[in-house]
Design brief:
Elements lengths: L1 E5 L15 E5 L3 H10 L4 E3 L3 H8 L5 E4 L8 H9 L11 H14 L6 E7 L10 E3 L2 E5 L17 H8 L11 H6 L4 H12 L6
């Protein structure tokens, strides 16, 4: 399959996908893209705006994974942080829903015939598009995900434990926020489970 991995980060969702597929990763930050490429040398890594790349290349792929930036939607940030004066209020970045609506419409019109999964945090507001929920995250897909429980994302644990949980050792990389990078990383087991569900779907939505 040809897989498009948008907002790829260091590749947590991709870590257990293996190398049998042709994977293109889109990451805007060159330093983060370098870490991804170090871990997945067989993937094609493009430093670009993922939102724009999706718009221009969606029809070229069999499966699209998108993990748009989530802080403006986060329940933790907006309920816990703002209430305690830790964070300033910000308007949610609705590119998340723009991508979902775009993919739904392209599929409906027959321009996209593949599968997609848009992953994001549980929002502080009722989701505008009904998601599937797993491992404390939302997944908006055109296929069913079978329920399964995974370990916590470990946001409040040490960097060492985060590194073990996500399966990435970032100590040799300079100039990055190690904690933030690991916290943004989707658990590899979650990524694998969703790919497996996509490859063997029971019901299309």
């Amino acid at each position: 399959m040809k897989i498009l991995n948008l907002y790829a980060g260091i590749g947590g969702n991709r870590k257990l996908w293996g190398d049998e597929h042709e994977i293109t990763a889109i990451e805007l930050d060159p330093q983060i893209a370098k870490i991804y490429q170090d871990h997945f040398p067989n993937d094609k890594v493009i430093i670009a705006d993922a939102h724009k790349y999706l718009e221009e290349h969606f029809s070229e792929y069999d499966f699209i994974w998108s993990s748009p930036p989530c802080p403006s939607h986060s329940r933790i940030r907006n309920e816990a942080g703002i209430g305690r004066g830790q964070n300033e209020p910000i308007i949610p970045d609705m590119k998340l829903y723009g991508e979902i609506i775009f993919l739904q419409h392209m599929e409906k019109m027959g321009f996209y015939k593949g599968k997609y999964c848009v992953e994001n945090v549980i929002s502080y507001y009722p989701p505008l598009v009904p998601p599937q929920k797993m491992s404390n995250h939302y997944f908006l897909c055109n296929f069913m995900i079978s329920p399964i429980d995974f370990e916590t994302r470990g946001h409040f644990t040490s960097n060492e434990n985060l590194s073990k949980l996500k399966g990435f050792d970032l100590k040799k990389y300079k100039g990055i926020d190690e904690r933030k990078t690991l916290r943004n990383c989707v658990e590899p087991e979650t990524g694998k489970h969703i790919l497996d569900c996509m490859l063997k779907p029971n019901t299309l939505l």
